[in-house]
């Protein structure tokens, strides 16, 4: 672990499954201390990339390095990278704690660490129940506990919030953030941009095995939110007229709400006050992650739905 600074590098990965190109020259770097969202529609190549990172699949070309090494060259893998690829991968008749004990024994990890991680993920009270009776949320927690056993600097989670209820989603988001605050590298995949709202600091967006965008969330949101002001007014028509006359682009977003592009909030206040138009609320517009991403690519379809010919490719599987 001494030489593992937690950086994950993906360099020129290519992978084909028969006639299907899963990865088509994929390159990106994941840095420690932040949550990186790994986003793309179903079939984009997220799981394949993660499996290659973990040495579960071989690349046709290129490589994935964890702290500068390929997975198979790591001396103590469980202490260098933790992963949850499939939360269902626990034997149903096995108790949660026993599942972790078995993992710990095989890697010479002390029993006290098992109880520590159970506590960390909030599963201590259910630890002696059989995993078959766990809810999806509990299985996700058990999977995360397993990933944390070796206290690794790098964590990979494949679709960890898929199918969870709002409470489970909230918990995972907070937990991912706390792992990143500890300085760890956290890579979390999702096929929905909205699932990464409020948790990702950085985004690597892929489509058809290629990187479409590699950007900080802050910059992405700032660019999409810039120069937009949200306004609430009982005199919507008058407000629209005054602002549009001053050169602003105005869109009605509700019965008494408007979004204004062009002038900043101060200028909007000035214009409305000058014209005697009443308003009750004014704030900087905050774009959603999905909205920001759509603006960046200008290509809603690429992300929102797999093109038709991909459905054909699926049939080849
Ligand atoms: N073992 C396999 N055999 C054949 N084709 C595969 C195999 N694994 C993945 N593929 C194909 O490779 C492509 C990428 O799949 P992958 O599972 O990596 O995508 P993904 O982004 O993780 O999608 P999802 O969100 O659905 O998990 C898809 O077209 C998929 O059908």
UniProtKB/TrEMBL annotation:
Which family is this sequence assigned to?
A: Belongs to the ABC transporter superfamily.
PROSITE patterns from the UniProt entry: ABC_TRANSPORTER_1 (PS00211), ABC_TRANSPORTER_2 (PS50893)
SUPFAM superfamilies tied to this protein: P-loop containing nucleoside triphosphate hydrolases
Which Gene3D superfamilies does this UniProt record tie to the protein? P-loop containing nucleotide triphosphate hydrolases
This chain's source organism reads Streptomyces mesophilus
Name this protein carries in UniProt: ATP-binding cassette domain-containing protein
Pfam families associated with the record: ABC_tran
Under the heading SMART domains, the entry gives:
AAA
Residues spanning the membrane: none
GO terms (molecular function) for this protein are: ATP binding; ATP hydrolysis activity
Q: Cell wall biogenesis/degradation: is it a keyword of this entry?
A: no
Q: Which UniProt keywords apply?
A: ATP-binding, Nucleotide-binding, Transport
Taking every annotated instance into account, which residue ranges of this chain make up the domain ABC transporter? 8-233
